[in-house]
Every structure is written in structure tokens, then in C-alpha cells.
Amino acid sequence: MTDSAGNGEGVRPNSLAGDKSRALLQRAERVIPGGVNSPVRAFRAVGGDPLFLARGEGAHVIDVDGRKYLDFVGSWGPLLFGHADPDVIAAVTRAASAGVSFGAPTEAEVELAETIVRLVPQIQQVRLVSSGTEACMSAVRLARGAASRDKIIKFAGCYHGHGDSFLIKAGSGAATLGLPDSPGVPTGVAMDTLVARYNDLDSVEAMFDRYADEIAAIIVEPVAGNMGCVPPERGFLQGLRAICDREKTLLIFDEVMTGFRVAQGGAQELYTVRADLTVLGKIVGGGLPLAAYGGSAELMARIAPEGPIYQAGTLSGNPLATAAALATLRKVEQTRDLYPRLEALGRRWNDGLTALLRARGRDYAATRVGSFISLFFKSGPVRSWDDVRRCDLDLFARWFRGMLARGVYFAPSQYETNFISYAHTEADIDLALAAASEVLAEV
Ligand code: PMP
Questions:
Q1: Closest atom of ligand 1 relative to the 289 alpha carbon
Q2: Mean pLDDT along residues 77-106
Q3: Cα–Cα dist 175/157, whole Å
Q4: What pLDDT digit, counting tens, does each position of 337-366 carry?
Q5: CA 141 to ligand 1 center in whole angstroms
Q6: Are 296 and 138 in contact (CB under 8 A)?
Q7: Which residues contact ligand 1 via a Cβ below 6 A?
Q8: What pLDDT, on the 0 to 100 scale, is given for residue 6?
Q9: Does the N terminus or the C terminus of the chain have fewer Cβ atoms within 10 A?
Q10: What is the pTM of this model?
Q11: Which residue in 232, 238, 204 sits closest to 218, CA to CA?
């Protein structure tokens, strides 16, 4: 951070935001609920006011007050190559000058689908949509339609967007704001969503004991990211696969966060396990609104116009989003050291953090899968939502604020994951560790 916090009128206690951010929030609150277009952005869980951002450059963001932060949010995951990547900008600019939307097929969509099919082993056909929420809703509709069954199993603390079926014990902003079961979700819809415990196959078996022939699909984040980063324990994902095979239930991997993040082929490649349907978002769109769901050609043939299960979108396969997606996936394919480097940076952070924690006699769980990182303010291992909910949220808020005051921008909730990008350097990681050392001494 490059300047000091002002003390203008109407300053809220503990605010870390500058004058211009605070003034914008006041304007925004008059016309946008809570002043933000997605709840976690409001910083409610950590106190203070959100930063209004003006620019991004590689691993950094710059707010409207001109303060520069080292960024570990990365737009919540999409920016694998950092902010304002020149290749993405060039591709989007080129596409824009040819027309921003047609609502008709384009060559770039075909190329993008071919690229996704080439990179993600279990996808033979893919449908492009505009958000992770839409992709998850569509995948579940396909599973229900294909299986002629209504119920799905999800896991407490996992988040699959804000579709009605998923706002039952949901993670991410829903958990952050204490709204895991949102009002407005019809009881009938809620009854068709069964909630199991992450990393606990027995809890899944218990659902099948009770509802054997009614369960269309299990949907899971193969590395949970919406209750912080909770990695799957050995055998968990394989166990889900075996149960689904036995019960003729479809396995949906929500790889909105893990896709192209933990490996080129996502969690399915990293853990050598096969899903029937794969949901992609975030990185696949290169920072523009694009997501996707796909699976075998046979299953995808159930989607309209090929089959009877309806799903559509005016802006689906939008030329700008498609251009950003293609530019990003080209880099994913062509950057030889991408995953080794993300792994090395992730390890550098976690080894450093673990040493700091040990030196201070704290046994908080620092979890990581590659460049996907979290710090849980609780003792002992973190396997599921039951563990995560025991975190000391006040301590988390103080950690967040201490890091932000030192110019390091982490996600403003204990229940979110942080991301390292290819644009981060070893020196960036060391800088964040130096800040962490100071903050851990304080909190
Ligand atoms: N699934 C997962 C795993 C996610 O992390 C998210 C968003 N954080 C979604 C689905 C929803 O995606 P979107 O916000 O693009 O609707």
C-alpha cells in the first residue's frame, strides 16, 4: 500500500479504505443493495469498507485512492496469468472491433470447444454459458433429466453458485453472511437437495440407504474452495466414483475453481478420477463472463436442440468472452513451466507460513493444493465444514486487516480460498510472508 488512510467525514470505525473508496461506497449503497454486486465484496465479515478497484497489473491491484496491493484474490480465481494480461487484452480488443455479440454461431466458439475437449480428458462435448452458477444449474438439470430422478447430493460448505438447489448449507458468501440456507428457496426444491459431509463417504452412503433410487447426481467441489481450501482426503473422490457406479448415479465435478488451476486437466487429472459431468468457470473465461459444462457425447446429446433437456442463453459463447477464454487456454497449453511454477510458489508460501506458525506456537491449518491456499484460524486438521465452522472469525478478521494494512490483499472471508498467479514472483511471496510474520505477532 502506498499512502495512508484518510480520516474524512462519515468514516466508519476500523475502515481501511481510502476517501475515494468510502465516498463511492456511500454512493453505491443508495442504488445497489449493500453497495456491491456480489455479497462477499462488501467486507462485512472483516469490518471496514471495501476497496473500490481502479486497475490491475500482473500480481497487483490499484484502488481508486491510488494504493497498490499485492493481490491473492485474482478476481476470485480466474486470473491465472494475473491482471491485464496483454494476450487477453489483445484478443478481446480484436474481437470487440469485429462486433461484440451476434447470438449466432461463430468460429471462435468451435475452436474454444475443441480446446476444452482437448485439455479436459472427460469432456467429449461441451456447452458454453455465462457464469459458474448457470453451468452448475444446467449440469444438474441434465443429470436429473437423464436419470429421471430428482434428488441430488451436495456437501456442506461447498458452493455451486446461487441456484435454488445449491443454497442449502452453502459455502462462500452464503456462509460468510450466515445465510447458508437462503430464504426464497422453495421447500420442495430444498427437499430434493441432500447434504452430506465432505471427506466422509459414510455420510454419502447414509443418503443412499434412505433414498437409493431417487438420487440423480452427486455434485462436489473436488477440492473444496468455498469454505476455504479443504483438500479431498485420499480415497474420497474415488469412493464417490465407486458409489455412483454402483448406484447408477451421475458424478458431477464442479471444477469452477480447480479447472486449469490444479492441473491442465483439473482435479480429475490431479487425482486420476473420472466425473460424468464437469463444470468449468473462472479460468476458462479468462476473466470474462464465460463458463461451461461438458461430459460424454452421449450424455450431452440430451441437451436441446439435440435432445429434450432445455438450456439456452442470449450471450452464451459471446465473442469477447470466447476470445479471452481462447487466449487464456492457449497460454495454459503453451506455458511449459505453468504448473511446476504455481506449485513452487504455493510451496514457498506454505512452507514459509508453516514455519512462522510453528515459531509462534500456533497450530492453525495452512492448507494448499498447488496455488490454491488458505489459512484456517483453528487448531487441528480441517476436513469438512464441521471443522471450518469452528474457526476463530475474529482472529481471521484481524489477520485480514493486518495484511491489508501492509498492502497484501487476501480474500475478505475465512470461507474463501486465495490464489497465487503465474504473475507472482518469489519476491512477492517473500513480501507476503514478511507481512504475515508481523501480523501473526500482533493477532
Ligand atoms: N462453483 C464454484 C466451485 C465456485 O467457486 C463458484 C463461484 N465462486 C461457482 C460455482 C459460481 O460461479 P459464478 O460466481 O460464476 O456464478
A1: 15
A2: 98
A3: 7
A4: 999 999 999 999 999 999 999 999 999 999
A5: 17
A6: no
A7: 76, 131-133, 136, 159-161, 172, 221, 225-226, 254, 256-257, 281, 291
A8: 37
A9: C
A10: 0.96
A11: 204
